[in-house]
Amino acid sequence: QVQLVESGGGSVQAGGALRLSCVVSNDAYAYNKFCMGWFRQAPGKERVGVAVIDAFSRTEYAESVAGRFTISRDNAKSALYLQMSSLKPEDTARYYCASLYMDDYCTSLTLQRSDFGDWGPGTQVTVSS
Prior knowledge:
Structural class: mainly beta
Helix content: under 10%
Order of helices and strands: EEEEEEEEEEE
C-alpha cells in the first residue's frame, strides 16, 4: 500500500506563489521508480492532471499551467513538490498528488487520472483576485 500526504496549500492573492509538498510512504516499492503527478479538482469539475514527473525527472505540464508551475522530486526524502507562481483565481482547486508504479523505472508522462493508482487526500489552494 502506498500512502501519500500533501501539504502546503492555502490562500493567496492573484500573482502570488505557493509550494505544495507530497510525502510518499510504502513498504514494497522504491520511490525512485515511480512516476508522480499533481492533479487538481475545482468545485463542480472533474479532477484533471496538472503536472507529471517520471523516474528520470522528465516532466510534462498541462497547457494551463506550463511556464508557471514546476514539478520536482527528492528521491532521498520520497517527496514530490509543485512550485506554483503567477497564480490566478482559476487555479483555485483542491490539489492531489498521485503515484504511478511500474515494474521497472517509470517513464510514462501521462496526465490521465485513470493511470495513477494511489492518491493523497489533497490540499486546498484558493487564489483571490
